[in-house]
Amino acid sequence: MKNPEDVKILFNKLAKNYDLYNRIISLGMQTRVKKDCLKLLNVSSGYKILDICTGTGDLAFYLNKINPDTDIIGIDFSEKMLETANKKKKDRKNIQFLIADGREIPFEDNTFDIVTIGFGLRNIENYERVIDEIKRVLKPQGQVLNLDFSCDDGFFNSVFDMLTQISTAFTGKKSSYDYLIESKKNFLNTTELISLFRKKEYIFLRRKYYAFKVVAAEIFRNNKKI
Ligand SMILES: C[S@@+](CC[C@H](N)C(=O)[O-])C[C@H]1O[C@@H](n2cnc3c(N)ncnc32)[C@H](O)[C@@H]1O
């Protein structure tokens, strides 16, 4: 279903209860994982940070907690997901949410010190285009965090898919969770993903697995020269 219009419709429909469903299918682990993976980055005061596929803004809010003296922009093409993000934002001044497509990031070259993307690339048909766009808007030596399901073969990934199917009984969102399982099957595993980033001239710095290797975070450095 990776047609971008269908993906947008799916997330617009999910938006209202996205955070709740996420907590259910991750058995409450997603908050801890999202907070922990951000510690793999070096975040300094004054940094400009872009969160692509920001959804309801979790990574942006947790980054703001790590260092409130940063400017964070979250982009997403689902207006309903951003509506929820804006409600959660309250009066935080240095976080902004914008409607934008990750395949055409509306910022100039070399703008950001850090780009993060959480559970996003897998949903984008032309994900290589996003990786190129990240490189363009990221400063030389800037850092990238990719957090997502690992899509590696393994016992616990199969268990996760089974639990996801069971949890649809509680949420009534069968098609959304069928989509989640299908998107995991069709995406790159972590080794392939790291190779792809390397091919695009990023330096792979580190990887951390969570939840019995069902989720993985990778950090890269932009190796482009000015
Ligand atoms: C699974 S959610 C992840 C949200 C958030 N990053 C998190 O960790 O909870 C994926 C998000 O990617 C967005 N998305 C998918 N394709 C996109 C694209 N081409 N450009 C911008 N956003 C996109 C969807 O609208 C959705 O909000």
Fill in the keyword field for this structure:
binds S-adenosylmethionine; 226 residues; Rossmann fold; 9 helices; alpha/beta; 44% helix; 7-stranded mixed β-sheet
Q: How would you characterize the overall build of this protein?
A:
The structure is a single chain. The protein has 226 residues and is α/β, with parallel strands linked by helices. The chain has one domain: Vaccinia Virus protein VP39 (Rossmann fold, 3-Layer(aba) Sandwich). Helices cover 44% and strands 23% of the residues. It has nine helices and seven strands, in the order H-H-H-E-H-E-H-E-E-H-E-H-H-H-E-E. The protein has helices at 4-14, 18-25, 30-38, 58-66, 79-89, 127-137, 155-171, 174-186, 190-199, and strands at 48-52, 71-76, 95-99, 112-118, 138-149, 202-210, 215-222. The protein has a seven-stranded mixed beta sheet with strand order 3-2-1-4-5-7-6, with helices on both faces. Helix 6 (127-137) links the parallel strand 4 (112-118) and strand 5 (138-149). Helix 3 (30-38) packs across helix 4 and helix 7 (155-171) runs antiparallel to helix 8 (174-186). The protein is globular. The chain starts with a helix and ends with a strand. 39% of the residues are buried. Bound molecules: S-adenosylmethionine. The site of S-adenosylmethionine has 21 residues, from helix 1 and helix 4.
Short description:
This protein has helices spanning 4-14, 18-25, 30-38, 58-66, 79-89, 127-137, 155-171, 174-186, 190-199; strands at 48-52, 71-76, 95-99, 112-118, 138-149, 202-210, 215-222. With 226 residues, it is α/β, with parallel strands linked by helices. The protein has a single domain (4-222), classed as Vaccinia Virus protein VP39 (Rossmann fold), CATH 3.40.50.
